[in-house]
Amino acid sequence: MNPQTIKVACSNCNLRELCMPVGMSDEQLQRIDDIVATRRKVKRGGTLFHSGEPFTSLYAIRTGFFKTLVATEDGRDQVTGFQMAGEIIGLDGIVNDHHTCDAVALEDADVCVMPFDRIEELSREVNALQHHVHKIMSREIVREHGVILLLGSMRAEERLAAFLLNLVQRLHARGFSQSELVLRMTREEIGSYLGLKLETVSRTFSKFAEEGVMEVKQRHVRILDTQALQRIVNHQQACQ
Amino acid sequence: MNPQTIKVACSNCNLRELCMPVGMSDEQLQRIDDIVATRRKVKRGGTLFHSGEPFTSLYAIRTGFFKTLVATEDGRDQVTGFQMAGEIIGLDGIVNDHHTCDAVALEDADVCVMPFDRIEELSREVNALQHHVHKIMSREIVREHGVILLLGSMRAEERLAAFLLNLVQRLHARGFSQSELVLRMTREEIGSYLGLKLETVSRTFSKFAEEGVMEVKQRHVRILDTQALQRIVNHQQACQ
DNA sequence: CGCACGGTTGACCTGTATCAAGCCGGGTGG
DNA sequence: CCACCCGGCTTGATACAGGTCAACCGTGCG
Lengths: 240, 240
Hints:
Two copies of one chain form a homodimer.
Chain A: H1 16-19, H2 26-33, E1 38-42, E2 47-49, E3 57-71, E4 77-84, E5 88-89, E6 102-115, H3 116-123, H4 127-153, H5 156-173, E7 180-182, H6 187-194, H7 198-210, E8 214-217, E9 220-223, H8 226-233
Antiparallel strand pairs in A: 1-6, 2-6, 3-4, 3-5, 3-6, 7-9, 8-9
The structure holds a DNA duplex.
């Protein structure tokens, strides 16, 4: 059976509570199923969409791991986020009908393609869906506030600690360990996200390991002292 | 006549093209008018909403100038944006039904209060409004991408140059000069927004003035060479 | 097996923070 | 109307976090 033609159903998707509203009637769920037009596979290193491409759809990540990045004319780029299963990407495209960032798969990925005009159409009729779309967009705004806070006011150790706590918390919500994780991205990508150079990221990992806060072996990280990480983020030393 | 009881009408508001969708029928415009429940005045230094307060409404700025800021438990705070007439604030509150940042007036302000449940209700019926709400939220996401890029990858001069160009461009869209502006915020607030200390902001202003790129006299700024500012943002020197 | 990419570590440099002193200008009270 | 005061701004001297450059290592893929 061709995977492109599989009828996808949100109603029996195990990620439903992550990307769809809860507490809907069967009839409403049925209609939500119709939003997902197709699925799309993206290989590691491939892009789901490029900056400048016309915007048509939002994407719900079923499996895999993405980074989104914005670029300037002069060739700089900046990772704006890492996205995992159950998260929605593509919201940046709505305002001008084209995407303003790239979404690149950091591991083989599978996404649900949800044409945005269908979403708008259906959310006029299903209040829960309408509100859900608003919440997803608002959540993204609040997430970015957090990134801005991190980039604007935290030091290297605080940034990396906050990043790791956030990652592990999101992984935990998906049934993974609270203390162990495998990074899907390079030191350079972490650095870009955190506004640091890769050497600084590497040194900071080493420092955390030296202090016994975590074990680090390339991309395998085991957090030994979550409390300590929390204290680092909360910047215990006097900051007037 | 009590200003609280003035019937506000978007349909004859001179900011309409900034905050409301264009190309609507008279009947639709009429209904949009009903969204604006009341107006609210906020004195300089006063807050429109606080972090933690229940979310009920979005606010369209009629006059005045705001900053929004997020704070951490440990007392740090970070300005996440400056908002002027025609812009919408409060979107952060949708996701968890309470606000996650403070909105503080930097000058006496007047805002339209738009209860969000009314917005949702009406945007189920008026497609143009529905799409407009989506665009406003998407625009905010894209704006924040820009801030993240700035904070993550630019140096002090580039940040300040980008900030000034952005401000002057938004003011120009509102009929003000392309080259002259009066800053509504302190050096410290600019610094917080740009992830810099106030001394660095001040020094960078002085440097721009020395180089003849602009005249700076306290909060009065006259841009003499927009091209030069653009070049600074575009980071002309080799960056590998 | 070997190459190439990602990661680590060291030495040194620089941009921005920090600390400190003084200035400017607008608002208030005598 | 002037003097004073205070918040905001500027400027200088110095400190330091993180960037830069460079060498080397490790490991996983072809």
